[in-house]
Amino acid sequence: MGSSAGWPSPRVPVKAVKRRVKAVLGRFTPRFTDHADWAIGLLHGPSPGDLVPPVSVPNPIVKRRDLPDRRVAFVADPFALRVEGEWYLFYEVMDLRTGRGRIDVSVSADLRSWRHLGPVLQEPFHLSYPQVFVHEGTIYMVPETWESGAVRLYRAELFPTRWSHVADLLVGPVLLDPTLFRAADGWWMFVETSPTVMAGELRLFYADELGGPWTEHPSSPVVLDDQRLARPAGRVVAWDGQWMRFTQDCSRFYGAAVHAVRIDRIDRENYAETELDGPILAGSGAGWNASAMHHLDLHDDGAGGFIAFVDGHRSR
């Protein structure tokens, strides 16, 4: 059962908040459709701060022209899951016919050749940021579904193509890029909630069980009025004995770069973090990711390093 988020003030109508957020997000729409291109690439390296393109894999690994559907503006927000020796890559597809994002999946056995399996989740509201994970033998997805007014949990009924909505984890007017992870004492969720400023407010919630109830942390919001460090940019990972989260730098323009933040302490009473030197990802100046990068999904490569699924932007 979902928990109700305690913002904004009850005096502020929820519809007014949603109109304001849509107006703010709408400022970036031409960038996504007519004048820009987001695509998905692969990096690897010994640490999250030292990622480079692999020599054997040509980037980008998935781009909008790879899809048979030609009414697509871009692909972005990759989250991967390895199942029975194959990599399944879930990502947002911006459908120009509906003006909304949907979730598609591609599969690869070697990280080099990717086969598009098609759309796997479409709703009458925008979908993006499809975080997929396994819990107690079941595969789940928590995409961004802020237009529905909730953080929605989906379960794979027939992986990877059939999903069902099983619960609303949080309810509130602005719930952007919910990012879940499980630590020894339960579940944690970061979610960006700013009703007036793009990517300026990060809240933290916890729960004993995945399905909730979810409770806001006493230190929340853990980021306030900081467009560099508030909006999540991919799953939380363990590295060098500590948790690390990633953020979109929206201070100059939407999704310009990715920063890394080390979580120094997290429990039911306390939260502390330290921003690491960065950014760790940014536009390369040329090619498929010339202008910006805003997402990072890290996975253990089995040899002490990381495989990283990322996205990048170039003007067109």
Task: Give me a quick take on this structure.
With 316 residues, the protein is mostly beta strands. Helices cover 5% and strands 51% of the residues. Residues 7-12 and 27-35 have low confidence and may be disordered.
Characterise this structure.
The protein is mainly beta and 316 residues long. The protein is 5% helix and 51% strand. Strands 17, 18, 19, 20, 21 and 22 form a 6-stranded antiparallel β-sheet that branches. It has a 5-stranded mixed β-sheet with strand order 1-11-10-9-8, with no helix packed on it. A hairpin with a 2-residue loop joins strand 4 (72-83) and strand 5 (86-95). The longest helix has 13 residues, at 14-26. It is globular.
Topology, please?
Blueprint: E1 3-4, H1 14-26, H2 29-32, E2 36-47, E3 50-52, E4 72-83, E5 86-95, E6 100-108, E7 115-121, E8 128-135, E9 138-144, E10 150-158, E11 162-171, E12 176-183, E13 186-192, E14 201-207, E15 215-216, E16 223-224, E17 231-232, E18 237-239, E19 242-249, E20 257-266, E21 271-275, E22 281-282, E23 296-300, E24 306-315
Parallel strand pairs: 1-11
Antiparallel strand pairs: 2-3, 2-24, 4-5, 5-6, 6-7, 8-9, 9-10, 10-11, 12-13, 13-14, 14-15, 14-16, 17-19, 18-19, 19-20, 20-21, 20-22, 23-24
